[in-house]
Amino acid sequence: MTWHRVAELDEVPAGQGKEILVAGRIVALFHVDEDWYALDGMCAHQGGPIARGVISGNCVTCPWHGWQYDLGSGCNLLSGKKMLDCFPVEQRHDGIWLELV
Ligand code: FES
After folding, report:
1. Ligand 1 pocket, Cβ-based, cut-off 6 angstroms
2. How many alpha carbons fall within 13 Å on the CB side of residue 13?
3. Residue 16's domain is classified under what CATH number?
4. 96: Cβ–Cβ under 8 A, 6 or more apart, which residues?
5. Structural domain harbouring 34
6. Within 13 A of 30's CA, how many CA atoms are on the CB side?
7. Whose Cα sits closest to atom 3 in ligand 1?
8. Atom of ligand 1 nearest to the CA of 63
9. pLDDT digits (tens, 9 = 90+) for 14-48
10. Does this model's pTM top 0.85?
């Protein structure tokens, strides 16, 4: 497991997401209030760009067909099944860091 510095502290405003490429993997990074989340960047349905989804509370809605995922668990809200991998994220003094398993 390796930590990667993936964003500047002010790069992703609260309430928004950003698609990032980390060690060859597409990841959706989200900033919600004071918290950070990171999920697989491609929707489990047809590969839609999760980072461009709409955030509502603790959930993101895929912009392509509306599948919804819990930001903290990667579970699909309809089925309750975990469909997206999640990654630990930390806000440090020098930026936003993410751990890839
Ligand atoms: S690709 Fe995400 S809901 Fe279809």
Report:
1. 43, 45-48, 62, 64-67
2. 1
3. 2.102.10.10
4. 5, 6, 7, 8, 9, 11, 12, 29, 36, 89, 90
5. 2-100
6. 29
7. 65
8. 2
9. 999 999 999 999 999 999 999 999 999 999 999 99
10. yes
